[in-house]
């Protein structure tokens, strides 16, 4: 038990050190120092081609903001804030209860972090996201999915379950998750499909739109092309979409790429692509209540954590598209998102990839 505690303390210390380095690097990174004031971006003095200037650079619009970002439904803090908060709670519990064993400490940790209010927020968003993904698949025309294909996809969406403690036994195989800022989809060896949400994420993601995008991305993995392939299924509509995403460079096609292997971005690009459709629904449902600035802040908060990476920190660009591709190519080019932001479709870009995309010159 002591060894486990020591290991987790050590892990905490390492994470804290990395955090301090990240914060230091971000504070002095030239890219941040050169960025224009936010007001200039949100209220551009020069209107070109009858649309706001930010329409030409959605990546900058979403990623230039530092620190906490707010929309009418709540905040999104930098990732590292949540882990620091969670580790502080963990250390305080240990300090106050030196005679407790690991289980007792984890019980209290989960009691404090996964409290009813935070759990309900995530559960409500998860129920909404699940229903919206089901609706998205159900409303596809017959030319995209036949009745059997729809049943197969919907069945996977419905079978996927969100695991959210308490009890602490839910994460017994991965107790570090109580303090980590991670949300992930997982298919177990016995075929169970589940989503898990780290404690740090609950502490920092309070915006409805961030919850929606994050959970929709993870839920989409239950039906991503690689999961479909592993279930020995294949859908022509998936092939059309994949070909389009490859052709547009939203999945990097390098020489050593091997579909659905570790160096392939297909499943991550697909998960983002689905999450964008669902987030567009969420933003649209608030669009009559929100003013333009509020819609921009809500859209930014949806994908806020995708642009957290610092250029100095090595990021996984083998299985994930680069942040600019995710935010501008997949999110910012979606016609519904652009409409909500008051932007026209980019002139240079052909139409957005769909399940009906063709891979000929008509793209
Ligand atoms: Zn993913």
The shape is globular
Ligands and ions found: zinc ion
- Overall structural class, as computed from helix and strand content, comes to mainly alpha
Rg from alpha-carbon coordinates: 21 Å
Task: Name the strands of the widest sheet in spatial order.
Answer: 3-5-4
N-to-C span: 59 Å
What does the model show?
The protein has one domain (2-341). 53% of the residues lie in helices and 5% in strands. The chain is built from 16 helices and 5 strands. Strand 1 (69-71) and strand 2 (74-76) form a beta hairpin. The longest helix has 27 residues, at 2-28. The protein is globular. Zinc ion binds at residues 217, 221, 268, 271.
Architecture blueprint of SSEs:
Layout: H1 2-28, H2 30-33, H3 38-42, H4 58-63, E1 69-71, E2 74-76, H5 79-96, H6 102-113, H7 116-138, H8 147-159, E3 161-163, E4 183-187, E5 193-197, H9 199-204, H10 208-220, H11 225-230, H12 236-247, H13 266-286, H14 292-302, H15 323-332, H16 335-341
Parallel strand pairs: 3-5
Antiparallel strand pairs: 1-2, 4-5
Zinc ion binds near residues 221 and 271.
């Amino acid at each position: 038990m002591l060894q486990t505690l020591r290991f987790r303390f050590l892990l905490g210390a390492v994470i804290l050190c990395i955090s301090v380095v990240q914060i230091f690097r971000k504070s002095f990174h030239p890219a941040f120092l050169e960025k224009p004031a936010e007001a200039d971006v949100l209220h551009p003095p020069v209107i070109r081609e009858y649309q706001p200037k930010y329409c030409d650079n959605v990546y900058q619009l979403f990623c230039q903001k530092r620190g906490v970002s707010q929309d009418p439904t709540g905040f999104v803090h930098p990732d590292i804030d949540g882990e620091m908060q969670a580790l502080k709670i963990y250390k305080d519990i240990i300090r106050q209860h030196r005679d407790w064993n690991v289980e007792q400490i984890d019980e209290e940790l989960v009691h404090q972090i996964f409290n009813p209010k935070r759990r309900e927020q995530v559960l409500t968003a998860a129920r909404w996201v699940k229903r919206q993904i089901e609706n998205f698949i159900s409303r596809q025309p017959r030319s995209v999915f036949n009745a059997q294909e729809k049943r197969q996809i919907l069945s996977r969406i419905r079978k996927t379950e969100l695991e959210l403690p308490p009890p602490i036994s839910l994460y017994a195989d991965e107790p570090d998750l109580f303090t980590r800022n991670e949300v992930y989809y997982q298919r177990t060896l016995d075929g169970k499909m589940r989503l898990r949400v780290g404690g740090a994420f609950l502490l920092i993601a309070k915006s409805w739109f961030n919850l929606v995008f994050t959970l929709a991305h993870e839920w989409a993995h239950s039906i991503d092309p690689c999961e479909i392939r592993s279930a020995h299924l294949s859908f022509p509509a998936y092939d059309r979409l994949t070909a389009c995403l490859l052709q547009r460079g939203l999945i990097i096609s390098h020489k050593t790429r091997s579909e659905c292997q570790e160096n392939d971005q297909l499943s991550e690009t697909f998960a983002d692509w689905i999450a964008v459709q669902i987030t567009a629904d969420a933003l649209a449902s608030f669009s009559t209540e929100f003013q333009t600035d509020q819609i921009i802040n809500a859209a930014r908060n949806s994908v806020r954590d995708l642009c957290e990476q610092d250029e100095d920190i090595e990021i996984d660009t083998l299985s994930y598209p680069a942040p600019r591709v995710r935010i501008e190519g997949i999110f910012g080019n979606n016609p519904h998102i652009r409409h909500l932001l008051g932007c026209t479709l980019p002139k240079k870009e052909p139409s957005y990839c769909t399940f009906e995309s063709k891979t000929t010159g008509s793209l």
